[in-house]
Design a protein that fits this description.
alpha/beta, Conserved hypothetical protein from pyrococcus furiosus pfu- 392566-001, ParB domain, 2 domains, about 160 residues, globular, 5 strands
Length: about 160
């Protein structure tokens, strides 16, 4: 399996204040609107509970960081009119970034099943096999296959 940036010791992690307009969301997810509307208030009163995580692997070629984790925090900062945000900067493959995003989504309370299925499918499309995905998602390979099938069927529906 690919190396995960989480294996970096805390003292060796890189943190930077990054311009929000230099961050591209590559793996967005649906959110509970009521909960999201509370995020900017919370961020304004309490501050950023933890940095977002961005990937700088493609920064030189695109001029953009790719968001790995923290879309809600990024959206809250935008809603507050902020122009920068604290980010942990990692350098990883897109597959690793998608995997980290999946793990973060799984940690959220009651993730939307369709959103979860799309993320599983994206990992599979990026080359992860059913066994690797199942191990990371703490699910069976059968469950992973069902998620991918669900995402594929959703893509076939007329919009």
């Amino acid at each position: 399996m690919d190396r995960m940036p989480d294996n970096v010791s805390i003292r060796d992690r890189r943190y930077e204040e990054i311009s929000i307009d230099k961050i591209k969301v590559i793996n967005g997810c649906s959110r509970d609107q009521e909960q999201f509307e509370m995020n900017p208030q919370s961020s304004n009163q309490v501050g950023l509970p933890k940095p977002i995580r961005v990937n700088d692997q493609f920064l030189k070629s695109t001029g953009m960081y790719e968001l790995v984790c923290g879309e809600g925090r990024l959206m809250a900062h935008k809603a507050l009119g902020r122009t920068t945000i604290l980010a942990e900067v990692v350098t990883c493959t897109r597959k690793e970034a998608y995997l980290q995003s999946l793990v973060a989504s799984k940690a959220r309370i009651k993730p939307d099943r369709m959103d979860f299925a799309r993320k599983i499918k994206r990992l599979h499309d990026e080359g992860w096999d059913f066994k690797q995905i199942a191990r990371v998602a703490c699910r069976t390979e059968y469950f992973i296959r069902d998620c991918i099938r669900l995402a594929e069927q959703d893509e076939e529906r007329p919009g």
